[in-house]
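Minutes, project huddle
Topic: does the predicted pose make sense with 2-acetamido-2-deoxy-beta-D-glucopyranose bound?
PN asked that the exact inputs be recorded in the minutes so nobody has to dig through chat later. Recorded below.
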Amino acid sequence: MALHSGALVSFCLSVLSAASSRSRSSLNPSLSSLVSTLTSINASMETMWKRSRPTKYTSFRTFIFGITAQSMFPDGVVYEGVGDGEPVSFRGESGANDSMIPLVDNLTAVPYPDTPLTKILMDFRQYRPSNHREFLAWVRGEAERVGVRAWALGLDRVEEEEEEGVEESRGLWLKVLNQVRDFRWRHWCFAREYILKRTSHPTATGGSPIVTWLPNQLQAVLDEMVRLYEGFGGDEGGMGEEVKGIMELVRRQQETLRKEVGKFCEERGVQASA
Ligand SMILES: *[C@@H]1O[C@H](CO)[C@@H](O)[C@H](O)[C@H]1NC(C)=O
Ligand SMILES: *[C@@H]1O[C@H](CO)[C@@H](O)[C@H](O)[C@H]1NC(C)=O
Ligand SMILES: *[C@@H]1O[C@H](CO)[C@@H](O)[C@H](O)[C@H]1NC(C)=O
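Predicted holo structure (tokens), as shared on screen:
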């Protein structure tokens, strides 16, 4: 996966620069390259199913738990000889590491709901390398400054002669989000197969609630896709058959996710909405 991070960064930058110069003829090829790169990342992640057996995972998962919000460390952990002997609490390596999906989140400005679960997502960001954090903050700021989302998607106003280009951008943008969706869907499937079916411990290694946390972000992406697609005129919006197929899958997935989360919550006696 990390092999593709150079291309990912470079195409995110070219999307920003195309938006900054309001050049649709550079935006669309840049979005298209971004989709291809994310597609390669997706394909390489998919190989994890073959490389790591769900039945073995819980045996080493024990060793990657953090401290924060874990029942086995109710009072934190004292590291002897470190600091002033006060207990500390960290979330550990989980979720903290990778900056690829957060980068695309910050470029596309997917709105996350104001929930305690989203707060955990933001808290994870603290655990990343500082130069990644700075870069992501810059991307976010730049995306806002040049108004990439609103301009790329023609949210304010579209001149007639621009229409075709804008429809293409909209389709490509949805394909970018579709990759993020697929990533998060797979993460949910991993959690289901590797963890939820094998242990009843309610907390993920990073201290987030195991059943509801991943769906919080996944649902946000699914909702954004539906909202945008409908806003662009849905099936009549000129975004093509491929996007239409993607959106059918998105709707099915919304439904499946709702049912699965409901089922796991019921089994475990937890609330489905945070
Ligand atoms: C992700 O990769 C898998 C495996 O190659 C593929 O089946 C799936 O269609 C891909 N998803 C997307 C959104 O590209
Ligand atoms: C975290 O990132 C480092 C450096 O890129 C890598 O070696 C390590 O495997 C990553 N850990 C996890 C859990 O992803
Ligand atoms: C990335 O975007 C989120 C909102 O989706 C925002 O809250 C967060 O601060 C951004 N991250 C950075 C590092 O700017």
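Observations noted during the meeting:
- Residues 93, 97 surround 2-acetamido-2-deoxy-beta-D-glucopyranose (ligand 2) (CB under 6 Å).
- The first helix runs from residue 5 to 20.
No decisions taken; revisit at the next huddle.
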